[in-house]
C-alpha cells in the first residue's frame, strides 16, 4: 500500500484519513494540520521523510505566479527543504491542468453558459490555469487578490491587469511570513463580515475555499461555488447560506474533497518519481483515472 501524507499549515480540525484504490493501487491518504505552526510542520516532514511515498504541502503554495514567471515563497521553501528523500508537491502543477478541465466541465457537461456569468475568483495568482479558462469561455471575471490576500477593497478587472500587478507585488510578498497572506491554523475557522458586495455581485464564486470562507456573507442565495478542499462542515455551511450548487475540482474521498496537493502527491506516487510531473504527464494520468468534479446540487438535495 502506498502512503501519501499532506502536512498542512491549516487547522488540525480539518484532518482526515482514508484508504482508497486508484488505478489498481491501494493508497492510505492522510492529512496532518499543524495549526499554523511552521516549525511543527517541518518536524512532521522530517519525521516521515523516507517513510512515505509522497508528501503534499498543504495550506501554503510553494510558488506564486506572475504570468509565466514563478516566485518561491520563503516559508514554503523551508518545508520543501525538510524533505530530503520523499518527493513533496504543493498542487500547483495539477491546478494548471485539473482546474482547466473543471471549467470545461462546467460549460460542456453541466451546461453552465459562462459567457454571460459574472465570476469572483478570490485569488488568481495561484490559479492562472483556472483564470485563463474562465476568460477563454467568456466569463466576466473579477480577481480578488488584493481584497482577500491583502484586505484592500480593490477589485482587479482583467487577467492582464492581474499579471502586471503580480510582477510588481509578488517578488516582495513572497518574502513575507505566510500567515500575513493566507489564513493558517485557527484563523481558518473565523469568518469576518466584510466585502460582501463582491460576493453578491457574482453569479459564480471560485477559487481557494479558505479565501471564499474568509468573508462569507450570511446569505449566498442561488450562488455557484467552484472550489477545492471542503469538509462535511463546510458543505453544511454553504447549504445553510443558500448556495445552489457546489463544484469541487477534486473528487470525493469518503465525504471529503482533498486539496490539489494531495491529488498531485498521489500521481507522483503512482509514477514512483521524485519530482513534479510535467503538464503532459498530469493530463495523461487525469485521462486514465477519469476524475470528474464533485457536484452537489443543494436545491435538489442530491449528490451528482
Which key phrases capture this entry?
Rossmann fold, alpha/beta, 14 strands, 2 domains
Brief overview, please?
This is Quinate 5-dehydrogenase. This protein has eleven helices and 14 strands.
Topology:
Blueprint: E1 2-8, E2 16-22, E3 25-33, H1 38-48, E4 54-58, E5 63-66, E6 69-72, H2 74-82, E7 88-89, H3 92-108, E8 118-121, H4 128-136, E9 140-143, H5 145-150, H6 159-173, H7 196-200, E10 204-206, H8 209-214, E11 224-227, H9 232-240, E12 245-248, H10 260-271, H11 279-289, E13 294-297, E14 302-303
Parallel strand pairs: 1-3, 1-4, 4-7, 8-9, 8-10, 10-11, 11-12
Antiparallel strand pairs: 2-3, 5-6, 12-13, 13-14
Characterise this structure:
This is Quinate 5-dehydrogenase. It comes from Desulfonispora thiosulfatigenes DSM 11270. The two termini are 29 Å apart. Strand 2 and strand 3 form a beta hairpin. Helix 1 (38-48) packs parallel to helix 2 (74-82), helix 3 (92-108) packs parallel to helix 4 (128-136) and helix 3 packs across helix 10 (260-271). The chain folds into 2 domains: 2-91 and 259-289, Rossmann fold (3-Layer(aba) Sandwich); 94-252 and 294-303, Rossmann fold (3-Layer(aba) Sandwich). It is α/β, with parallel strands linked by helices and 304 residues long. The longest helix is centred in the N-terminal third of the chain and has 17 residues, at 92-108. It is globular and about 50 Å long. The chain has a 7-stranded mixed beta sheet with strand order 9-8-10-11-12-13-14, with helices on one face. The chain has a 5-stranded mixed beta sheet with strand order 2-3-1-4-7, with helices on both faces. The chain is built from 11 helices and 14 strands.
